[in-house]
């Protein structure tokens, strides 16, 4: 283990944005999503030595904590309240003003994907994980992860303007 | 020709996910603490060597306290000689011996005598 592995800040700086993006696929509210990331990160940091693939384990912890959050009965009420509120959710991506339309297009297209495809896209594009790492994080075969990814991009393309992908 | 999947992926990757708040990092610092920094091995070895050296020095024979030097006796007064003469010839001899030892440089031992008071 290198000296960098003893500094949890380096892990957070590198993977924090993707971790938060993944958490927000299950937990709409940003503050709740950060709570999920916090708990997941603590679990990961204390047990990372036992993981075969530390990065895959980190993302798996976030996903597992987010699903646990969803299953919580007291949080289910809050989720229903959040759904009932007008859509004033914080953006998922940082953008300059000229990219605002693009951001909205991408976020809307991602929201239309099935959950299992959306999480693969997030892990691959913004998490930077390989398909074997994604497979370890999601506990699926690598071929399954790769197939989900291609299906997801096939579904995304029609919803994105030609200007976006030209 | 670039794969359309690659182009779409590259375009998506240009968007940067929102970073976690600084409050999250602060909460993690409370939970996880500051990153551990291990002291260099040479420093630990030097500390161990210093500790061993201190133990060795502590077990050495203590330095004996400096010897208390015998105080040189002041020369006898006239009254002391007169008193010794009145007492006995032997007392006068003892007084003269002590004076002789003092003059020769031999340290004289502060002996309690019967003539401690000054008759001057």
How does this structure look, described?
The complex is a heterodimer of chains A (166) and B (120). Chain A has 166 residues and is mostly helical. Chain A contains nine helices and one strand. Chain A has helices at residues 8-23, 30-47, 54-71, 73-84, 100-112, 115-126, 131-138, 142-159, 162-165; one strand spanning 93-94. Chain B has 120 residues and is mainly α. Helix content of chain B is 54%, strand content 2%. In chain B, helix 4 (78-87) runs antiparallel to helix 5 (89-104). The longest helix of chain B is centred in the middle third of the chain and has 18 residues, at 41-58. The model of chain B is unreliable at 108-120 (pLDDT under 50). The A-B interface holds A 6-9, 12, 16-21, 30, 34, 37-38, 41-42, 45, 90-95, 99, 102-103, 106, 121, 124-126, 150, 153, 156-157, 160, 164-165 and B 4-5, 7-9, 11-13, 15-21, 23-25, 27-28, 31-32, 35-36. Strand 1 of chain A pairs antiparallel with strand 1 (16-17) of chain B, so a sheet runs across the interface.
Keywords:
heterodimer; A: about 170 residues; mainly alpha; 9 helices; globular; B: about 120 residues; 5 helices; rod-shaped; disordered C terminus
Number of continuous helical runs of chain A: 9
Q: What is the H/E order of chain B?
A: HEHHHH
User: What portion of residues of chain A is helical?
Assistant: over 70%
- Whole-number mean pLDDT of chain A: 86
- The proportion of strand residues of chain B reads under 5%
The biggest chain-chain interface is: A-B, 39 and 24 residues
What's the oligomerization state? heterodimer
| Beta strand % of chain A | under 5%
The poorly predicted ranges of chain B are 108-120
Structural class of chain B: mainly alpha
Topology of chain A as a string of helices (H) and strands (E): HHHHEHHHHH
Shape of chain B: rod-shaped
Question: In terms of structural class, how would the helical and strand content of chain A be classed?
Answer: mainly alpha
What is the rounded Rg of chain A?
16 Å
């Amino acid at each position: 283990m290198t000296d960098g592995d003893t500094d949890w800040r380096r892990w957070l700086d590198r993977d924090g944005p993707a971790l938060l993006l993944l958490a927000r696929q299950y937990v709409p509210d940003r503050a709740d999503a950060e709570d999920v990331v916090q708990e997941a990160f603590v679990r990961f940091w204390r047990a990372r030595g036992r993981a075969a693939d530390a990065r895959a384990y980190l993302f798996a912890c976030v996903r597992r904590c987010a699903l646990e959050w969803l299953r919580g009965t007291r949080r289910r009420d809050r989720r229903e309240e959040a759904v009932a509120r007008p859509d004033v959710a914080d953006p998922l991506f940082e953008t300059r003003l000229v990219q605002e339309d693009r951001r909205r297009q991408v976020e809307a297209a991602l929201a239309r994907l099935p959950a299992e495809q959306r999480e693969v896209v997030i892990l691959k594009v913004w998490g930077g994980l390989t398909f074997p790492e994604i497979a370890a994080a999601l506990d699926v075969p690598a071929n399954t992860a790769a197939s989900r990814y291609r299906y997801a991009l096939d579904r995304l393309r029609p919803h994105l303007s030609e200007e976006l992908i030209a | 020709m670039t794969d359309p999947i690659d182009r779409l992926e590259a375009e998506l990757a240009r968007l940067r996910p929102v970073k976690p708040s600084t409050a999250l990092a602060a909460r993690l610092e409370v939970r996880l603490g500051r990153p551990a920094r291990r002291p260099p091995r040479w420093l630990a070895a030097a500390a161990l060597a210093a500790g061993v050296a201190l133990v060795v020095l502590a077990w050495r024979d203590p330095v004996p306290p400096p010897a208390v030097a015998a105080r040189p006796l002041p020369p006898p007064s006239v009254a002391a000689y007169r008193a010794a003469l009145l007492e006995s010839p032997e007392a006068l001899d003892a007084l003269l011996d002590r004076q002789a030892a003092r003059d020769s440089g031999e340290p004289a031992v502060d002996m309690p005598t019967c003539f401690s008071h000054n008759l001057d």
